[in-house]
């Protein structure tokens, strides 16, 4: 006990030292000057440089010292100054204040801080959750392999021995020596190639670099593993952007890698279901506690148990192993969500409160602010796409052969429905210096590209296009600044436009996705052998990379699940999922409703599931909806499985009822799921739910509040749940009565149980489908 305390105290001291101020002679100061009364960005910047020149020997030195010029909504600048220079500027009459820019506590591209899992409080005391829990939990990552040399996979200080329950191994292979690659952090590594080679042929190692081993050339697996359980690594960034401390959700948890996805063509990765099912088999035997799998098949979805993911995750659930899947990147159209099995967790992607603003000045007249991940300034000629592409459509196949050297091309996503990748390849092919890509603001997400690329909205793009059309010369002079990192300047989260939406096309009475997590521009570990864009045209090398996708959201949830399992080892996968869903929130950082990217509407449960993940609340949810063996039997009955088949796939305990209910007497709606979805309400029905008190107080009183879906009366009985030492589990009933004529329209409400401290919220999704009944009654 004493040794553990000293170890934890040592970690606390080490992390506290990180916040000791620098002793360098100069620091970054902010000079605030109030409103921008000049109203010209270029003149404002020149004025700032002029002020700085008072405290430097020359204008050139002043320019070098300036980091940013605040020249639009207000006036001011950031510069590197010593204390004497700062004091001198503070005495200038038009300067309101001068203050030192403090070091912000940015961690894992900020996503974990954004979710409330901070390493440090305001008093610089280490919060124990992430640092004190997780050693006993093993997370299996099914992906493209691992780059073991990354500091994300080094042993955390004071990390104990590998759990005795672990039976896995590290398999040797090409450029992967278990003696040096594996440690007390990376405790297992396997790779599966047979299924891939049988289905797609042998790896083409001449054209596509790969390793026949757990080592991953493609960075996807390294990135997801780092996000879920990566060790704490300070002072990292992507070319200076998103700077901070990287860490996984459970930095002390153990990692087991199962390489099931491989290069086929350079830009494509394929995962054989044969290999995936073998990985499930091995992982469950090895002793993993959580499986994170960021892959899936696009709709139309095959029936349950006709997919390796459904089969593997079902057996994992029965062994108490939680399986977390990504929802897919086919949004924002409805019903394209994947991985919809009720025994696994399906995760949508959302943004955080961080942006990468990039300032542009055209002909010293027009100022535009977009977003980019560019690390360099650009001075070039801005031209319209019509000069280089047939009908102005920015596609590499439509290039006219004219060189765009020294130019930045303006492209629109709505001209020919061009994708961002199309436009980047087209600009690269034309040898352009950069790309300005205009698209709807609901889809505006900057990403790493092979060519400097700035994303702007359609309004800004239209403004630039019309300006260019009025010029008598071929183009305009454009000055593009390097991207910067802004925190808390925009609301978050917002559901990412690409995140796949519900309802489930396979089981519409079960809400999918289950919840959302950060999945936009997540910074995590990357193999330095692979370029950040994974393009052969890219010659850069990085150790950390920014990626977006539900693939990035999935390991965020996996890391939180690992923490929950460490704190509550007796909770089932269903109980853990319930805790995550019923504590998820639906308000952004400005306390307004979360928006759905890809549209201007408020996010509903088909966009965001039960809401955005709230790790701290999920540790103590108050009540949980657990699913027992009988629930899964009913589900299997509903999808057509016979009693004999059910007995072959379900672990049965003495007294378990394996019979199927009478035909027509049950639906998926009656499963004890944390959300309630009725996709075909034609008349009054009653639904049952059962909750278990997992709060610290065994005697508790929970009162209910209800928000009715439009056109539906909701009655809850009983309206008060009384828990005691002898009554920890209670059932309640929900009666739904339609009082409107409708067809094909979903309406949303919620049911909240509260004891005054816990708020256990269940989404209520109802589609009244009785229009035909009304018509029939009228005809009679």
TrEMBL record:
Gene Ontology BP terms: proteolysis
SUPFAM superfamilies: Subtilisin-like
Signal sequence extent: 1-25
Family stated for the protein in its record: Belongs to the peptidase S8 family.
Matches recorded under CDD domains: PA_subtilisin_like, Peptidases_S8_3
InterPro entries given in the database record: Peptidase_S8/S53_dom, Peptidase_S8/S53_dom_sf, Peptidase_S8_Ser-AS, Peptidase_S8_subtilisin-rel, Peptidases_S8_3, S8pro/Inhibitor_I9, S8pro/Inhibitor_I9_sf, SBT
Record: active site: 143, 220, 551
GO MF term list: serine-type endopeptidase activity
Organism: Nyssa sinensis
Entry keyword annotation includes Hydrolase: yes
Name of this chain's protein: Subtilisin-like protease SBT3.18
PANTHER family, alphabetized: PROPROTEIN CONVERTASE SUBTILISIN/KEXIN (PTHR10795)
Domain Peptidase S8/S53 positions: 134-587
Lineage, uppermost ranks: Eukaryota, Viridiplantae, Streptophyta, Embryophyta, Tracheophyta
A Pfam family matched in the record: Inhibitor_I9
Residue ranges occupied by any Inhibitor I9 domain in the UniProt entry: 28-107
Every Subtilisin-like protease fibronectin type-III domain range: 670-766
Keywords from the UniProt entry: Hydrolase, Protease, Serine protease, Signal
């Amino acid at each position: 006990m004493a040794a553990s305390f000293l170890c934890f105290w040592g970690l606390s001291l080490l992390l506290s030292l990180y916040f000791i101020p620098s002793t360098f002679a100069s620091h970054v100061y902010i000079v605030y000057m109030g409103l921008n009364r000049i109203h010209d960005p270029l003149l404002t910047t020149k004025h700032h440089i002029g002020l700085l020149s008072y405290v430097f020997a020359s204008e050139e030195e002043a320019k070098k010292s300036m980091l940013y010029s605040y020249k639009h909504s207000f006036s001011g600048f950031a510069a590197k100054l010593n204390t004497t220079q700062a004091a001198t500027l503070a005495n200038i009459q038009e300067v309101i204040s001068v203050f030192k820019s403090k070091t912000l506590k940015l961690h894992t591209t900020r996503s974990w801080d954004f979710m409330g899992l901070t390493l440090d409080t305001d008093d610089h005391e280490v919060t124990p959750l992430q640092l004190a829990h997780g050693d006993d939990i093993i997370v299996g990552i099914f992906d493209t392999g691992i780059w073991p040399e990354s500091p994300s996979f080094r042993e955390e200080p004071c990390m104990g021995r590998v759990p005795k329950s672990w039976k896995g191994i590290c398999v040797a292979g090409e450029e992967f020596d278990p003696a040096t690659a594996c440690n007390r952090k990376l405790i297992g590594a396997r790779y599966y190639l047979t299924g891939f080679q049988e289905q797609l042929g042998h790896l083409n190692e001449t054209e596509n670099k790969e390793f026949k081993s757990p080592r991953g050339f493609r960075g996807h697996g390294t990135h997801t593993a780092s996000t879920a359980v990566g060790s704490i690594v300070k002072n990292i960034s992507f070319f200076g952007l998103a700077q901070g401390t990287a860490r996984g959700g459970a930095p002390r948890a153990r990692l087991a890698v199962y390489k099931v996805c491989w290069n086929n063509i350079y830009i494509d990765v394929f995962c054989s279901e044969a290999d995936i099912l073998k990985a499930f088999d091995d992982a469950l035997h090895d002793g993993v506690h959580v499986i994170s799998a960021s892959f899936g098949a696009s709709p139309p979805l095959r029936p349950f148990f006709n997919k390796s993911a459904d089969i593997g995750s079902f057996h994992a659930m029965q062994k108490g192993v939680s399986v977390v899947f990504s929802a897919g990147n086919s949004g924002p159209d409805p019903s394209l969500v994947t991985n919809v099995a009720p025994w696994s967790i399906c995760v949508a992607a959302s943004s955080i409160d961080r942006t990468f603003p990039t300032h542009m000045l055209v002909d010293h007249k027009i100022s535009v602010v977009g977003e980019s991940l560019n690390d360099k300034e650009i001075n070039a000629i801005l031209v319209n796409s019509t000069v280089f592409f047939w009908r102005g459509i920015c596609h590499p196949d439509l290039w006219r052969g004219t060189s765009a050297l020294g130019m930045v091309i303006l492209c629109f996503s709505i001209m020919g429905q061009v994708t961002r990748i199309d436009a980047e390849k087209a600009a690269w092919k034309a040898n352009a210096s950069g790309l300005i890509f205009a698209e709807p603001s609901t889809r505006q997400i900057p990403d790493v590209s092979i060519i400097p690329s700035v994303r702007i909205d359609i309004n800004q793009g239209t403004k630039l296009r019309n300006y260019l059309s009025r010029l008598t010369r071929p183009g305009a002079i454009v000055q593009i600044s390097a991207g910067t990192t802004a925190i808390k300047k925009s609301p978050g989260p917002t559901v990412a436009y690409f995140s796949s939406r519900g309802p489930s096309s396979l089981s519409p009475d079960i809400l999918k996705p289950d919840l959302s997590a950060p999945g936009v521009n997540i910074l995590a570990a990357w193999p330095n052998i692979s370029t950040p864009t994974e393009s052969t045209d890219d010659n850069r090398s990085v150790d950390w990379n920014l990626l977006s996708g539900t693939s990035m959201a999935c390991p965020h949830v996996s890391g939180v699940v690992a923490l929950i399992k460490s704190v509550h080892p007796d909770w089932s996968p269903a109980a853990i999922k319930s805790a995550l869903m019923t504590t998820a929130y639906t308000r952004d950082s400005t306390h307004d409703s979360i928006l759905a990217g890809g549209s201007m509407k408020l996010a509903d449960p088909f966009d965001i599931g039960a809401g955005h993940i709230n790790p701290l609340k999920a540790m103590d949810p108050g009540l949980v909806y657990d699913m027992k063996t009988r629930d899964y039997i009913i589900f299997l009955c509903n999808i057509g499985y016979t009693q004999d088949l059910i007995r072959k796939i379900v672990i049965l305990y003495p007294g378990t009822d394996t019979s199927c209910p009478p035909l027509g007497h049950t639906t998926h709606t009656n499963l004890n799921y944390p959300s309630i979805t009725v996709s075909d309400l034609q008349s009054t029905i009653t639904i049952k739910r059962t909750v278990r008190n997992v709060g610290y107080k065994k005697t508790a009183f929970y009162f209910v509040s209800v928000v009715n879906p439009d056109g539906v009366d909701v009655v809850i009985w009983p309206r008060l749940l009384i828990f005691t030492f002898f009554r920890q589990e209670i059932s309640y009933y929900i009666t739904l009565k339609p009082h409107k004529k409708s067809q094909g329209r979903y309406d949303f409400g919620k049911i909240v149980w509260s004891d005054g401290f816990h708020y256990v919220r269940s989404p209520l999704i109802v589609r009244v489908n009785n229009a035909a009944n009304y018509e029939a009654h009228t005809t009679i």
